[in-house]
Structures are given as C-alpha cells and as structure tokens.
Amino acid sequence: MAEEKFLVVRLGSLGDIVHTLPAAAALRESFPNKKMVWLTHGRWRSLVEAANLTDEIWELDTRSPGSIRTVRKRIRREGFSVAIDYQGLWKSASLPFLAGVPRRIGFSLKDAREFGVSFLYTDKVNVSGVHVAEKNGELSLRAGARKPLGEFSLTVPEKSQQAASSMLRSKGIKEYVVLSPGGGWISKCWPAERFGQLALRLEQEFGMKSVINCGPGEEALAERVVAAAGDAKPISHSGEIGDMMALLKGARCVVAGDTGPLHLADALGTKVVAIFGPTDPARNGPFLARKTVLRAKNVESTYKRRDSPHPSLLEISVGDVVDAMAEAGVLR
Predict the structure, then answer these.
(1) This model's pTM is above 0.90
(2) 158-327: which CATH architecture?
(3) CA–CA distance, 43 with 149 (Å, rounded to integer)
(4) Which of 95, 194, 226, 255 is deepest in the core (most CB within 10 A)?
(5) Beta-bridge partners for 180
(6) CATH topology match: 5-142 vs 158-327
(7) Other beta carbons within 10 Å of 280
(8) Cα–Cα dist 149/26, whole Å
(9) Which has the closest alpha carbon to 211: 232, 183, 191, 194?
(10) Considering only CA atoms, which of 125, 134, 105 is closest in space to residue 7?
C-alpha cells in the first residue's frame, strides 16, 4: 500500500490563508507522521512557513503556463493520495485533477466559489459552518482529521523583528497602534479620512502614535490618511510579510476593515478592532483572538463591489472606534 500523502491547496490570499491555517493544523495534529505539502502563490510562502504545519511548500504562478506544467508533473511524481482544495476555484481544483490525485476533496456545488468546479472533486462536501474557517475545517474532517480545527502559532522571523524595532526606534516610537485602511475593494473600506482623524485623536488625547500599514498599490491611500491626520504625522510602512507580521505583533491594537492584515493580526494574538460594512463578520470576521467588531445595525450582507465605501460604513464614527479601543483596554 502506498504511503498516504496530503496535498493542501490554498493559493491565496492573505486573509484566506489565515482562515485555512486552523484546518491545516487539524490535519497536522491528526496525521503527524504523514507527508503534507502546501501549494500556494510565491507571495505567501513566508506566511505558510511561519505556521510550520507542512513538510514542504510548493510555489505556483498561475499566470505562467510553465509553472503550471511543472507543478502538475511534480504532483504526479509525488504520488499524493489525497488533495484538499480549500480554495474552490478552477485554478486550484484543476491541478490535482489533471495530475491524477486519486482522492480530491472540495466544496460541493452550492459552496464552491466558482460554478461547476466541484465536478473535479471525488469528495464534494456540503458544509454547514458559518465562518470560512469552519467551512475549511469540514474539508479536513472529510480527509480524516479527528477534529475540524487545530491550534497553530506564527513565528515572526528574527530579522523582521529586528528591522521593525530599528524602524520604530528611529522614529522615536515605543507604543503604537496600526491602522490598515486598505481592503481589496473600496466598498468594504472605512474612508481614509476617518483613519486620519482617528490617528489625530489618538495622538492628541492619548499620546498614542499610529503606523499606517501600506500594502502594494495602496501608497495613495496611505498618503490620504497621513494628510487627514495633520499634526499627528503618522508614519506609513510597507514591507514583506515578515515585516508586516513583526509590526502587527508589536502593536497595542490593529484597526482595519475586512482585510488580510486584520486577520493576520488576529492570528498573531494582537487585539483588533474590525470595522465591517457590506461583508458579513460572521462569515469573514476575525476568528481567533481578541477582537471587537463594529458594524452598523441591520446591514444586508453583500459581496458586490462598488467604487465608493458602502453607506453602512459611514455610520461608524471615529468616536465609535475610539470607544471600542478604550473598552478593549488599548488606551489609557
């Protein structure tokens, strides 16, 4: 009988990978002596490495036909017995199918993110969980895990910790909060100007410095936050995943919308204040640690993208966020 080997497929993105880690941890705990390989985009390799849940991490560039062919051949050579597709897309499901993995676990027709993709699975799981992490855990159960979700911790690289400490010392910053105004689509982002006003109030009333987390392509957004903050003069910071982890872990609190840095901070055990609008925090909210979720009442959840912040987000004031931070013990 061939050795049982597991292929974990979760290509991206940041928040989605964080919400897959508990399910992968359940697999690791249940099969400590079985080989596990995680297939992901190269951009997220260091995040998967930080969780230390799999024996190997394979990178895939879905824009490169050469990368796709190489990974497909590698999957076939490795001889995996089971592939678990936590992503539910054609691009994530097709590789185990084309490489001939005999058992392919994924979401059923009603739960897969793209229509028809479930036809590529041998095991189509009708999930009942509400949160994305819980849904992922049900796939792990189908793969034989003893429980749906396991424990994990993220290790911040030492060089990233040193770089973050050096940067903060150079700015004279000891205690700080991280404000992360981005979010993929603008309709789920609290306005940049309010993040700036929040930074100003935190400085004036509590002497608390703010660091603006700036992801790729968010430079202009960060500039708007800094401009709205006026005399508070928060600093904007961007860097690799390890640098972000170090910054988030050292913060007293992270304020963000439904975005990857929010979920990463949550996984690192940092207090978070999450500002939600159209997306449902019961499905996509912070899942693991100490969190406060702010959302207007009677908001209808939608995942349709708009070119302006969802009206419900405008009902959450700067004062609401300050009050939430104070109740969480962040401000003193």
Answers:
(1) yes
(2) 3-Layer(aba) Sandwich (3.40)
(3) 25
(4) 255
(5) 256
(6) yes
(7) 17
(8) 5
(9) 232
(10) 105
Rounded CA separation 22/59 (Å): 21
Q: For residue 48, what are the contacts with CB-CB under 8 A and spacing of at least 6?
A: 17, 38, 40, 54, 57
- Note the CATH architecture for domain 5-142: 3-Layer(aba) Sandwich (3.40)
Q: Give yes or no for residue 110 having a pLDDT over 70.
A: yes
Helix then strand then coil, in percent of the chain rounded to 5, is: 45, 15, 40
3-state SS class at 7: strand
* pLDDT at residue 303 in the model: 87
Please list the residues that pair with 210 across neighbouring strands.
Answer: 177
Contacts of 238 (CB under 8 A, 6+ apart): 213, 214, 215, 216, 218, 219, 222
Of 266, 228, 227, the closest CA to residue 21 belongs to 266
Residue 149: phi and psi, rounded to 5, are: -130, 140
What does the alpha-carbon distance between residue 206 and residue 266 come to, in Å, rounded to a whole number?
23
Residue 184 is predicted with a pLDDT of 81
Q: Is the dihedral of CA 134, 139, 141, 142 positive or negative?
A: positive
Nearest to 326 by CA among 257, 253, 264: 253
Instruction: Select from 53, 30, 54 the least CA-distant residue to 146.
Output: 30
137/149 Cα distance (integer angstroms):
5
Residue ranges of the domains in the chain? 5-142, 158-327
pLDDT digits (tens, 9 = 90+) for 267-296: 999 999 999 999 999 999 999 877 899 999
